[in-house]
Known about the structure:
By secondary structure, the chain is mainly alpha-helical.
Amino acid sequence: MWRDARLVMGKDLRIEMRSRVSLNQVLPFALAVLVLFGLALGPNLHVLAAETAGLVWMAVLFSCVLGVQRSYSIESSDAARDGLRLSGLDPAGIFLGKAGALALQLFVLEIVLALVASVLYGTALSEALVLAVTCVVATLGLSAVGTLYGALALGVRVRETLLPLLFFPVVAPVLMGAMKAWQAGLAGTPGKAAGWLELLTVFAVAYGAIGTIAFGPLLEDG
């Protein structure tokens, strides 16, 4: 399973490095979301600094949908999905590989967005350890849900609109937990982030386990 996961993850990352879709499309989209949110809230830096956590994670959430759609658009052309099913790879390994590739891309995106937000909104990135741990566990949860529901919507003609409808309600706890943990970190009160980090960890483990079990049947039916 882990060998197959490394193969699939390497494949997705190599395709992404060659196509540069994340660099040329997803990253500019996320930065535009940050700028537009800032314009909507006005020029008051105190307000922007107080809302940094929510704005950054909303941008991550929207970008995650684009990342999931990109991940599965690779498999929908030239009968690549059929080749994946017939490859003999462990379905759990395929799930973990695709989720891992998506998580790595999202984690890099979160670092960039945090740095940009600190400049745009005048936010001091204090308690960097809390922020980093939040990014890791929240990203794992988002990637697991996105990969699972991306496979569920794969065979549907309206998957571009169906995926957000499936994805956003499920990841609401991740958005809330990541936002609250970041707010605690940015406020210099890391102790308040502990409960939210536990919630994010449970969510990531639960959906990781569900994905490894359910991905095979979803891939066959997609």
